[in-house]
UniProtKB/TrEMBL annotation:
Keywords: Membrane, Signal, Transmembrane, Transmembrane helix. It comes from the Bacteria. Residues 133-143 have a biased composition (Acidic residues). This is DUF4352 domain-containing protein. It comes from Streptomyces katsurahamanus. The chain crosses the membrane at residues 30-63, 83-104.
């Protein structure tokens, strides 16, 4: 038995519409930006990058969380993690800004302090005059040092030290004298150092250099008794030291004597020139 035909024509089957894809992009972006922002937060002086990334991560994370609450996204946890990391990065940026301001102020204070320490104080008229007098005295002392002195004269230094070389006196070396050859002329020079300054001076190296009239270096004479008694030690302020130096001169050069001497390493050498007799 056949079925009666349907009054409605057969049509295609009915399908339910597909749901839109989840909008998870902001949540993922928030997480990535939050992680990068926190990493930059540990690098000094990059707080400004950390702040930008942190704010963006916080905004994107909150928006992504809102979408997940409306069913438009499926990564609620990712968006929430991104927002939390964004807030942390923002806090780190604020801390970095505060530390940077403190560091810059501290460096500026130290620079200012050092500049004040090295600042040249103002010179008064009296100090300027005193400095000018000292400079003039030093120039006069330098000019005096260049002029030869006669034996018996005194070389005066700016700090109060005085150096005197007496006139050469004939000397007869002992039997066992060293440095004197038979036929030569031996002369002795008495040297006096007076310290009228304010500082102790080292006179251990105050050793004269002597040349005869021919320009030849004279030999020092030692006899173990009284030929040569050298300076030694230090000379206190207000004290004086006396020493005798004996030299052997060839007969040809025994007419004139030139001696160079300074009271210490810090002093210019003075020159004495004069006849032996």
């Amino acid at each position: 038995m056949s079925m009666p035909p349907s009054p409605y024509p057969a049509g295609p089957p009915m399908w339910a519409p597909e749901p839109p894809p989840p909008r998870n992009g902001l949540g993922i972006s928030a997480l990535v930006l939050g992680i990068v922002g926190v990493v930059f937060g540990f690098i000094p002086f990059l707080f400004w990058i950390t702040g930008i990334l942190g704010v963006l991560a916080l905004i994107f994370g909150l928006i992504g969380r809102g979408r997940a609450g409306k069913g438009l996204a499926t990564n609620r946890g990712v968006a929430l993690s991104g927002a939390i990391l964004g807030g942390l990065a923002t806090a780190m940026a604020i801390g970095g800004l505060i530390l940077t301001i403190w560091f810059v102020n501290d460096v500026a204070e130290k620079v200012e302090k050092n500049s004040r320490e090295y600042e040249v104080p103002a010179v008064t008229d009296e100090e300027s005059k005193a400095a000018g007098d000292e400079e003039q005295a030093a120039e006069e002392a330098a000019e005096e040092a260049d002029k030869p002195l006669a034996f018996g004269e005194t070389r005066k230094y700016a700090d109060g030290v005085k150096l005197t070389v007496a006139k050469p006196a004939p000397f007869t070396p002992g039997e066992f004298a060293v440095g004197h050859e038979k036929g030569n002329v031996a002369v002795q020079l008495k040297i006096t150092i007076v310290n009228d300054g304010k500082k102790t001076i080292d006179i251990g190296l105050a050793v004269p250099t002597v040349r005869d009239g021919k320009g030849k270096s004279a030999e020092s004479v030692f006899d173990g008794e009284s030929a040569t008694d050298m300076f030694s030690g230090k000379l206190l302020p207000g004290k004086q030291a006396v020493a005798d130096y004996t030299f052997s001169l060839s007969p040809a050069g025994a007419k004139e004597l030139q001696m160079e001497l300074s009271p210490g390493l810090d002093y210019e050498e003075a020159i004495w020139v004069g006849p032996v007799k």
